[in-house]
């Protein structure tokens, strides 16, 4: 065989081996790309589910906040409570004052009754 024929054969073998290698690499890259796309789709579905769950939770929290706002709006203010009810200390003071008044009234009635008995 002549040297140029050996060179052509080596060149042809090199060319075919490069084609086979490139085809294998292209196939591998295609599989990798397909796998990445599938993972992306799964992640996207998981993200969509997560977003849906989060929005549901936010809606529940908004309803809860609305309920609390209604409860707070219907609750009396401190001023209303003060106007409507007296404190324990105020009640004790008023009770003591009223007891003193009744004691004075009783003493006055007793004096009147004793005077009436004397006049009989």
Topology readout:
Elements: H1 3-74, H2 78-84, H3 88-119
Please sum up the structure shown.
Helices cover 92% and strands 0% of the residues.
Shape: rod-shaped
In whole angstroms, the N-to-C terminal distance is 169 Å
Task: Tell me the helix content.
Answer: over 70%
Mean pLDDT: 88
SS field, number of helical segments: 3
Cα-atom radius of gyration: 50 Å
Strand content: under 5%
- Specify the biggest β-sheet: none
Task: Kindly describe this structure.
There is one protein chain. The protein is mostly helical. It has a domain at 86-120. Helices cover 92% and strands 0% of the residues. The longest helix is centred in the N-terminal third of the chain and has 72 residues, at 3-74. The radius of gyration is 50 Å and the shape is rod-shaped. 0% of the residues are buried. The mean pLDDT is 88.
Protein traits:
single chain, 120 residues, mainly alpha, 3 helices, 0% strand, rod-shaped
